[in-house]
Amino acid sequence: MSKVVPVTLVKDDTTRWDQNVTEALGPSARVLAAAVARRHYLAGESKVDIAGALGISRFKVARLLDLAHELGIVRIEIASDQIVDLQLSEEVREAWELHHCTVVLGHGADAVAREDLGRTAAELLCEVVTDKDVLGLPWARSVSDMIRSITAFPRIPIVQLSGSVVVPDETTSPVDIVGRIARIAGGEAHLFYAPLILDDATSATVMRRQPSVASALAAADRVTIAVAGIGAWAPGQSTVYDTIGPEDRAEAVSAGVVGEVMGIYYGADGAPVPTHLTDRMVTLTGDRLRAVPEVIGIARGRNKAQAVRGALRGGLLKSLVIDTEIAQSLLAGDWPR
Amino acid sequence: MSKVVPVTLVKDDTTRWDQNVTEALGPSARVLAAAVARRHYLAGESKVDIAGALGISRFKVARLLDLAHELGIVRIEIASDQIVDLQLSEEVREAWELHHCTVVLGHGADAVAREDLGRTAAELLCEVVTDKDVLGLPWARSVSDMIRSITAFPRIPIVQLSGSVVVPDETTSPVDIVGRIARIAGGEAHLFYAPLILDDATSATVMRRQPSVASALAAADRVTIAVAGIGAWAPGQSTVYDTIGPEDRAEAVSAGVVGEVMGIYYGADGAPVPTHLTDRMVTLTGDRLRAVPEVIGIARGRNKAQAVRGALRGGLLKSLVIDTEIAQSLLAGDWPR
DNA sequence: AACCCGTGTGCTCATTTGAGCGCACCCCGC
DNA sequence: GCGGGGTGCGCTCAAATGAGCACACGGGTT
């Protein structure tokens, strides 16, 4: 309640006798500015109240606060997250008009751990999902990484969206992975045992007519949330690429394929690429995936950047869980849309 | 401009499937909260604008910001000064209803350097003084420390308020000190050569009648700003105490003297203490000092805490430049007034 | 002297913001 | 199925706030 003796905040440079002052402001002004800042920002008092308590005008309080900002007496910082680069995430989200984007920070010099990416994707899924949703899942390594991190889930239908690929070094079998979350969720589950890719279109057609498969693929219409891995068309960047033969790879390359999502192929501009491969897949169509209201894509590593960009351009994904390298690539150089 | 998919901020603990979530909030909410906080606090956008840009209500923006505070995503801190404890200064100022208070931080374990205290006092004086003021100065070690730090000063009258004490280890002579600032200021100066304390009351009366002395003491009425050292009534804590004989010291002690300012004696409650010493001083009266609108007291060290408190209670000082020890003592235990 | 410019100050008015309210929803137990 | 408690949400109205303006003062120039 004590009144303050007026203190001129900034003296004219020519008239100040403050040549001995170390900082830009005298000690009393610093004390005053700090006191005002503390009351306003830490104690939450309104500027009017502060002005009343100190016997100065509310305008002076406001100017004092501005000054305190300029001089660095008040410092406001947005805390950095341990796991997620909050700023980069938002920049990517904004730039590509995504629903959600989560950029996972890599610890140390090396890339983001699969485990971290999977856990973060799990958190995002759990955050976004409601008990009105229908979840669609393909088979993908990154998706199984995610599912491993999920311990609780709402009781909602789970729909398998694609066949599976046998990968030697994966310990758990494909359907187990999709089945795991179905068990956790406890709702109805549309699962099937089928390979993602067959040797010819005829076999694939037959396979798609299998009741379990047909029922699951039909249920894809009802899916409201899907999670997808993103495969780049290069060795080690796509389980499909690694599975098929050299000629098939080459055909896709010459057709312009840069990546696949759930076995749906697309080019650098995101447009579907017609290929003989397409008819051999047991998966939903690109249009059906595009119609899903929320599709979360998961990807990691510089080599997948172009594939992610294509998937986004093609409208296959609505959200992303990625690492810093891909995020920076998505913001760099050629701009979206 | 991209729209945001609604995200429920806090789920009911019973309904959340976030047992795998490391933090209290999902990644998307963290990204959103951080983005809002960044836009509001760093970019300075209004909540209404942010709400419009993100397609959410301004209330949600506000709640999101509250949340960001609670979770520590936004952290506001008042920067600490290198020289002055801004918070402690304000607390003392407020508690004792001072015009200004500057608590100088000691570096390392030992006490605040005389030099730091003097420099800070100089800064405060230069900040507070205007070219309409009349400056009054006594002789005191701390005052001479301050004056040494002054290199520029407005062209105002300088009035010497007390006689001087010869201290062996001070290199500069008393009047030189007061004369120095008079030279820097360049205005009219009321200086005189006289001891602060004489052997008897008669000599003191004679001395006070000397034209130069009388003129200066008369000019004390016009003084608008004075700076004073504070002496505690103990060895090494007051140049007056150290100068006089044991009987005089004892008399003052038994009369209840705890300190002196400009040779004006007072007790623990700040009331003037009548003593034979008083008549022997060449200085202004306590009432005259109390009438000066701004008196800045300088003191350092735990031993002077009680003397400072007395001087404040007695209304001799309006402002303080002190160290952390005295400041804490002023806030501790027995409360002012 | 008269002038002008830069600076600090407080005012007015439009915008922004906060406190409280009611509504809709959902989970739970009867 | 039907209240009850809790929660998130947006509305209303009053208070707080910001942008711009006018004024006063001081120092320097014409």
What does this 3D model show about the protein?
Two copies of one chain form a homodimer. Chain A has two domains: 1-76, Arc Repressor Mutant, subunit A, CATH 1.10.10.10; 86-331, Rossmann fold (3-Layer(aba) Sandwich), CATH 3.40.50.1360. In chain A, the strands form two sheets. The first copy, chain A, has a seven-stranded parallel beta sheet with strand order 2-11-10-6-3-4-5. Chain A has a three-stranded antiparallel beta sheet with strand order 7-8-9. The first copy, chain A, has 15 helices and eleven strands. Helices cover 42% and strands 12% of the residues of chain A. In chain A, 49% of the residues are buried. In chain A, helix 5 (114-128) crosses helix 6 (141-148). By secondary structure, the first copy, chain A, is α/β, with parallel strands linked by helices. Chain A binds a DNA duplex (30 and 30 nucleotides) through residues 8-12, 14-15, 46-48, 57-60, 62-63.
